[in-house]
Amino acid sequence: MVTEKDFEQHLADNPRIYPMFVDFAVEASMKNKHYSAQAVIERIRWETNVHENNSKFKFSHNWRSFYAKKFMKEHPQYDGFFRTRS
Length: 86
Prior knowledge:
Number of strands: 0
Mean pLDDT: 91
Largest sheet: none
Low-confidence stretches: none
Radius of gyration: 13 Å
Structural class: mainly alpha
Order of helices and strands: HHHH
Distance between the termini: 15 Å
C-alpha cells in the first residue's frame, strides 16, 4: 500500500510532474465541472512519452488519488473537482 510518505518521496523524485498535473487540471476545469484524475495522468504520460520522447518515464496509477487530493487542498477553489474516496 502506498503511503503519504511514499508520495512525498515520489514528488521529490519527480519535481516536474505535479506542476504538469496542476496545469492540466486547471485547463480541464475551464470546460468541466468535474474531471478524472486518471485522465490528467494519461495526459502527463502522453506529454512525457510522445511529445518529449521519454519512454523511460513511468507513472503509477497508485499516485492518482494523492495528486487529486493535493491539488484540491492547495487550490481550494477546485474542491470537489476530482471525486475521491475518504
